[in-house]
Design goal:
Layout: H1 2-28, E1 40-50, E2 56-64, E3 73-79, E4 83-93, E5 98-102, E6 108-114, E7 117-124, E8 127-136, E9 139-160, E10 163-183
Antiparallel strand pairs: 1-2, 1-10, 2-3, 3-4, 4-5, 5-6, 6-7, 7-8, 8-9, 9-10
């Protein structure tokens, strides 16, 4: 009986690993050079999931253009066709994946391109934001993770036996936002 169970378990592990490998290969075949392969116009619905409130849905557009004379890639985000935010993407050290989003109002946000993701993290008005853009076949997936800057709980910070446990802070989640922005007029 135990022998059959072990064989069944091994077969299951084999099939799961094959499926994971296939998924990884599919993702691997969909590499896009940043920022050139990202240039284009994208649109879709941004779904906002605030804590303890109803879900909100808004139209979202992202337009990424070819570099201008100053070296900025125009990076324009439009919400509900009326809230237009014109930024510029600037390469600081592209070999290290370091970029800046210039809001042209004295705010310049550092951002990093790594493993197919364009990421930025910053704090504003007592909130911490982590923004993740991923270019995928057919468009861009965008995720916003928003939390409070003030720790609601601190645990650890003890010595247990011979181990020193570091302090660990927990933060209140405020909202999660997600969109799939489909690329207009293209096959990828």
């Amino acid at each position: 009986m135990n022998k059959r169970l072990i064989i069944l378990l091994l077969i299951s592990i084999f099939f799961v690993s094959c499926k994971i490998t296939k998924h990884a290969k599919n993702k691997e075949n969909e590499k896009f050079d940043f920022p050139l392969d990202w240039i284009g116009e994208y649109d879709g619905k941004l779904i906002i999931h605030p804590l303890d409130k109803d879900t909100i849905e808004v139209n979202m557009q992202l337009n990424i253009g070819y570099p201008d004379l100053q070296g900025y890639y125009p990076w324009t985000i439009i919400y509900n066709e009326e809230d237009i935010r014109q930024y510029g993407l600037e390469a600081i050290d592209a070999s290290k994946g370091h970029y800046k989003i210039d809001e042209f109002n004295s705010i310049k946000l550092d951002a990093y391109y790594s493993a197919g993701h364009f990421l930025s993290r910053f704090e504003v008005l007592s909130s911490d934001l982590l923004i993740d853009y991923e270019r995928v076949k057919g468009g861009i997936e965008v995720s916003f993770f928003i939390s409070s800057q003030k720790a609601i709980n601190i645990t650890g910070d003890e010595i247990i036996g011979l181990d020193t446990v570091p302090p660990v802070k927990s933060f209140q989640f405020q909202a999660y936002q997600k969109a799939f922005l489909k690329k207009k007029n293209t096959d990828n």
